[in-house]
Structure formats: structure tokens, C-alpha cells
Automatic annotation (TrEMBL), chain A:
TM ranges: 64-87
Superkingdom per UniProt: Bacteria
A Gene Ontology cellular-component term: plasma membrane
Main location: membrane
Protein name (record): Cobalt/nickel transport protein
Entry keyword Transmembrane: yes
PDGLE domain mapped to chain residues: 2-89
Record's subcellular location: Cell membrane
Automatic annotation (TrEMBL), chain B:
A single GO cellular-component term on record: plasma membrane
Record-given protein name: Cobalt/nickel transport system permease protein
Topology in membrane: Multi-pass membrane protein
Localization terms from the record: Cell membrane
Main location: membrane
Keyword Oxidoreductase tagged: no
TM region(s), chain numbering: 7-29, 41-61, 73-98, 110-128, 140-160, 180-204
Keywords, in A-Z order: Cell membrane, Membrane, Transmembrane, Transmembrane helix, Transport
GO annotation terms (biological process): transition metal ion transport
Database matches in InterPro entries: CbiM/NikMN
């Protein structure tokens, strides 16, 4: 049981930490749609666009995408595990 | 599929913030029944995996890419309520920590990807459950189809929101055509990622696949 969970977490770390460097930089389907139609002109700058890890980088330097990815994995794991553990039905054992 | 702030007008953004909050609140209540000492860690890992895979934009056309949304993947592995929460957590972390997806747009983004995407993926998967129970090929096919449909229907969420209160007054038919065309291609990627992930989990730990849970129940009752 533990082996499976550790393996699953490791795969996520590998994807976010390493494979993320090979991601396409082209706009995704929604971004492409709003760019091609001109809707994107109305897009507002993200309030946190100047924050440390904005756009999965470190201070705007995407050499550190993998690091941002690993941080994200840790944060999502901590938040979601915490939430689901609190919500769970406790076994009567 | 994360929209920035400003693409939808303020009233519509607020309406979808309320819809998203209501949907997530409802999911929080319903999720309890699906979470125990075994499934809670699995749910945390599913959310984490979706975050990681969403970082990987794959090319679909010259100049356009797509990434996993994860609704069907989450719904098949941990159920619709917990699944919607998994995708919501991912979207909140992306918006707050990585400035990916606007803040006033968070309601619409959660509505599309976490609520509509997960619900659609789950409904399709349940409708095809008999096929999924037949074996690995069946499960692969069902996961692929559920994920494909979840992508296109989630994209439709944006089309509807834009029709209600989008900025710029672009003809809705044009928006719909682009969204559907691009997301039909992205849906193939979503389908493949979901099918490979779900069948991999099923081959190691079939007991952790929510969609297959019911199939074992009659046997347990008889024994």
C-alpha cells in the first residue's frame, strides 16, 4: 500500500520537476481562442504577476520551472492531503 | 483553460464565483462519504498528480497547445465529489501561488474545470461502466471517452459564460467554433493521459479505482 502511494507521489514530482521543462510554450486552447478573436485585449494583468513563483518560475526566470513545480507538488499535496484527511470518516478501529 | 481576469464582465464573474462556491460547498459535504483512511491519501495524490500533469502543455497545432484538465481522471479514480475538490485545490494553488488563472475569474475557472469537467467525466464514465468492468481495454476506452467529453464540455462552459457576459462583443459562433475545434484536439490528449493513468492504477491497485468499486459489491454481499 505504502509503496504505491510513494510511487505515485514520485511520478508527480518527476513530472513537475523534470518533464515540465519540455512543456510547450504555445498558448493553450482558451488562450489561443481569446488571442485570435481579440478578446485577449481585455485581459487584465494578474494581481500576483510580480510574485516570486508567478508563471511557474522563480523571479521570472524559467530556468527554475522545475523548482516551482516541485514546490507546487508539495503545496498541493499538503493542502489536499490535509483537507481529505480531516474530511474522512474515521474508522472505528 | 485558465482564463485571466477581464475576459468576463464583473457581474458574470461574481455570479460564477457564487456558483463555484455553492458547488464546492456541496462537494465538501458529499465527499465525506467517499473518504476513509485508504481513499483520503489517494485523493491527495490524485490532486497532486493533476497539478503536475497540468504543467505539461502538449502541442496540438502549430502555435497552440493544450494541457490536462483532470475532471474525468479524478472522477474515475476518487469519485465526483472528491474529484471536484481535487481539481479545485489545483486551480486555487495555481491562481494564488503561480499567478495562473485570474482571481475574479477563479469562479468561472472552477465552474468549468472542477465542476462541469468532473461532473461530465463522471456521468459519461458511469453510463459506460459496464464496458469499463469488462477489462483493461474496456477501462482504457471508457477513460478515454469520458476525458474527451469532459474537455469539450468544459470548453463549452467558457463559451456559455462568454455569451452571457464576455468582454469585447466577439460573435459567439466564432468563439464557440475555435473553442470546440481546439478542445476536440486537446480532448484526445486528455483522453490518452487519463486512459493511461487510470489503467495503470487499475493494474496495480484496482481497489483504488472508484468507478470499479460498485462492480465488486455483489460478490462481497454473497460471500
Amino acid at each position: 500500500m505504502k509503496k504505491f502511494f510513494i510511487g505515485f507521489a514520485f511520478v508527480s514530482l518527476l513530472i513537475a520537476g523534470v518533464l515540465s521543462y519540455f512543456a510547450s510554450g504555445d498558448p493553450d486552447g482558451l488562450d489561443k481562442t481569446v488571442e485570435d478573436t481579440g478578446i485577449a485585449e481585455h485581459a487584465q494583468e494578474h494581481p500576483f504577476s510580480g510574485s516570486t513563483f508567478a508563471d511557474y518560475a522563480l523571479g521570472g526566470d524559467d530556468k527554475f520551472t522545475g523548482l516551482a513545480g516541485v514546490l507546487g507538488v508539495i503545496v498541493v499535496l499538503a493542502l489536499s492531503f490535509g483537507l481529505f484527511w480531516v474530511l474522512r470518516k474515521k474508522s472505528d478501529a | 483553460m485558465h482564463m485571466s481576469d477581464g475576459l468576463l464582465n464583473a457581474p458574470v464573474s461574481v455570479v460564477f464565483l457564487v456558483i463555484a462556491a455553492a458547488g464546492v460547498g456541496f462537494a465538501l459535504v458529499k465527499a465525506r462519504a467517499d473518504l476513509d483512511d485508504r481513499t483520503a491519501p489517494m485523493a491527495g495524490l490524485v490532486a497532486t498528480f493533476i497539478f503536475a500533469v497540468q504543467m505539461i502543455n502538449f502541442p496540438i497545432l502549430p502555435g497552440a497547445s493544450g494541457h490536462l484538465l483532470g475532471g474525468a481522471l479524478a472522477a474515475i479514480l476518487v469519485g465526483p465529489w472528491v474529484g471536484a475538490l481535487c481539481v479545485t485545490i489545483v486551480l486555487v494553488v495555481q491562481a494564488l501561488l503561480f499567478a495562473d488563472g485570474g482571481l475574479t475569474a477563479l469562479g468561472a475557472n472552477v465552474t468549468n474545470m472542477a465542476l462541469i469537467g468532473t461532473a461530465t467525466g463522471f456521468l459519461v464514465a458511469v453510463a459506460l461502466r459496464k464496458i469499463a468492468e469488462r477489462g483493461k481495454g474496456g477501462l482504457f476506452a471508457v477513460a478515454f471517452i469520458s476525458a474527451f467529453v469532459n474537455t469539450v464540455v468544459a470548453a463549452t462552459g467558457f463559451v456559455v459564460e462568454y455569451a452571457i457576459g464576455g468582454a469585447g462583443g466577439v460573435e459567439i459562433g466564432k468563439v464557440a467554433l475555435l473553442m470546440w475545434g481546439l478542445h476536440a484536439l486537446i480532448g484526445i490528449g486528455e483522453g490518452l493521459i487519463t486512459a493511461v493513468t487510470v489503467t495503470s492504477v487499475a493494474s496495480i491497485r484496482p481497489d483504488l479505482v472508484y468507478l470499479l468499486k460498485g462492480s465488486r459489491k455483489p460478490l462481497e454481499v454473497r460471500s
